[in-house]
Amino acid sequence: MSENTNSGFEQKLWQAADKMRNNMDAAEYKHVVLGLIFLKYISDSFEQRYNELKNDPESLGTEERDEYILRNVFWVPKEARWTYLQDRAKQPDIGKFLDDAMDLIEKENPQLKGVLPKDYARPALDKRRLGELIDLIGTIGLGDDESKKKDILGYVYEYFLGQFADAEGKKGGQFYTPRCIVKLLVNMIEPYKGRVYDPCCGSGGMFVQSEKFVTEHAGKIDDVPIYGQESNPTTWKLAKINLSIRGIESKQILLGDTFHNDQHKDLKADFILANPPFNISDWGGERLRDDVRWKYGVPPIGNANFAWVQHMIHHLSPSGVMGLVLANGSMSSNTSGEGDIRKNIVEADLVDCMVALPSQLFFNTMIPACLWFIRRGKSVRKGEVLFIDARKMGSMISRRNRELTDEDISKIALTYHNWRKGKEYADVLGFCKSASLEEIRKQSHILTPGRYVGAEEEEEDDELFEEKMKRLTSELAKQMEDGKKLDEEIKKNLSSIGFRV
């Protein structure tokens, strides 16, 4: 299943799974479902390798552990395989079978130790519904094409992450960045070869999208090692599972507070992608006043936005590029020294591009957001910044949320790359503008794209005045006539119940 396949399969699957939730909170149910999808994934991968070995006369045997490990396939003991569990789905102690299966998998695969959910036997979890859920997830990936099974499971897992984020609202945004934003970031910085880092990686969406970019461009996944950190233990587990489903090595996805326990102190990344939490005030900044990372100014204790920016710049290689999501206030705020920090970053010629995003893209906040792109060691476009105003882009996908379309993403990314290459680029009034540092200084180092791109030109009205007035008066006359009829109808209805107008 490709991402562009509009089969409705994943939506139907979600609706069916969500019906089984009953009164369980989405935040709790999330781990029940995603854990089962992961179990199905590793069982399918194991089964595929098992069948290959069964037909290979030179193999050491279907139950030889090393034959799986060498192919980067998780070793799955018999009691943890999907067929074994699905055969017992209707039994009242299915929860214990699942917990035991997760324990066995962790013991046999040390990289998963402490990651998998193991609370299926709890009394509060309806075992009948759990059995139904197992049968439902058992339908994912069915078919003859073994190579597509894992892709389908990976896509379903990613889709469910988004749906759970939507169901959880504000809390959901802590582990999930909308796919369209991640895709835009990746298409802009093109992490084709080099180290990729995300210091607040959530459920790992930036890495998944980077892997997709590499494979779509015929690159090698091994050329893009990933490094990440997440402070929330539950979210960190989601990331490890998400990456495992995609077959992405996750040894360097570590748990801990990025500001106070930087797990990648010596890392200099070629690419950084991140969506740090907006405007957090309780980040412990008072204990980091003299930190080496604050090269461009000490960030305010009450807002971590520029602590995140400078942490990432600190970890950027001499020719590295980064893209991150921040609240719009980061582009213009002058409180608590933020304006000076922004000025120093601009004057160091680190800012490459600024993108103003449309509203309603996020599940967890209505705060307007923007994208910062920062590049060390600029070889082209020195002393210039590209401003893109994408606030009018995107389409509503629900009453609450909007998303950028593939066409929107392509237009923004192509504009940026054409600008960097210096070909086929031209400023477009209301959309994009290449500004010099001198122009930015005149705006007091405020980086809001709307200040630079100007207002979009109105379409020229070539309808003659006389013709327009005839058309408008004709429309007005018809509306007035319809109004009279409606008034008469209202009078008649009121009269029938004893009221005269």
What is shown here, in short?
The protein has helices at 9-19, 26-54, 66-69, 82-86, 94-108, 127-137, 146-168, 179-189, 205-216, 233-245, 305-314, 338-347, 406-421, 437-442, 450-453, 465-496; strands at 196-198, 226-230, 253-255, 269-274, 316-327, 351-356, 369-375, 384-389, 395-396, 402-403, 432-436. By secondary structure, it is an alpha/beta fold. A nine-stranded mixed β-sheet has the order 3-2-1-4-5-7-6-8-11. It has a two-stranded antiparallel ribbon with strand order 9-10.
Outline the secondary-structure elements:
Blueprint: H1 9-19, H2 26-54, H3 66-69, H4 82-86, H5 94-108, H6 127-137, H7 146-168, H8 179-189, E1 196-198, H9 205-216, E2 226-230, H10 233-245, E3 253-255, E4 269-274, H11 305-314, E5 316-327, H12 338-347, E6 351-356, E7 369-375, E8 384-389, E9 395-396, E10 402-403, H13 406-421, E11 432-436, H14 437-442, H15 450-453, H16 465-496
Parallel strand pairs: 1-2, 1-4, 2-3, 4-5, 6-8
Antiparallel strand pairs: 5-7, 6-7, 8-11, 9-10
Helix pairs in contact: 2-7, 2-10, 8-9, 8-13
